[in-house]
């Protein structure tokens, strides 16, 4: 578990003439489970992508310890997402031509790990997320829930300090969504993994311990909950 906070200061970003972030300051503590909520167009995904180094904000900074995420080159940010940050997207974005185990091993292979070692570790993570049996199957042969678990294993295989998840249940049915969220909750509680998750679904947001609600590219409210509060929300 990392002991390093992620700190965003004065984040601003626009797409053409449309502002997406309008000055956001945010500190994410190690081991927290942060959910970013808000209406469509409020800047949720843009904020997550800026925090994860997927995009570089127009202004402001993102720092992770002594690393300037926002000031790093594209190559350095890609390396960061292969090692210390894991990113899980709504549709998984698995490589269709690769098997599940090859998809999960991909970040390790890109980092120079020998194939046999990388695929052995990938197989372990497929087991940890409950889909070891699909290791040899390609994405087109997987259910939506299985594919998202494979994508989650890929995001975690490098034992990242922070997992960023952008609407990870948006393409799943309710049972598959609940299974993925239960798994994320276990990773947070048992392994101390820091999780930052974007969602528009109240039942998904209820899994978080800190809620950052955006409105028009700004933080409208920031709320923190104890474990009893989380359980009560999840049962609503």
TrEMBL record:
SMART domains: AAA. This is ABC transporter ATP-binding protein. CDD domains: ABC_MJ0796_LolCDE_FtsE. SUPFAM superfamilies: P-loop containing nucleoside triphosphate hydrolases. It comes from Nostocoides veronense. InterPro entries: AAA+_ATPase (IPR003593), ABC_transporter-like_ATP-bd (IPR003439), ABC_transporter-like_CS (IPR017871), ABC_transpr_LolD-like (IPR015854), MacB-like_ATP-bd (IPR017911), P-loop_NTPase (IPR027417). Residues 6-234 form the ABC transporter domain. The lineage of its organism: Bacteria, Bacillati, Actinomycetota, Actinomycetes, Micrococcales. Transmembrane segments: none annotated. Pfam families: ABC_tran. One of its GO terms (molecular function) is ATP binding. Keywords: ATP-binding, Nucleotide-binding, Transport. It comes from the Bacteria.
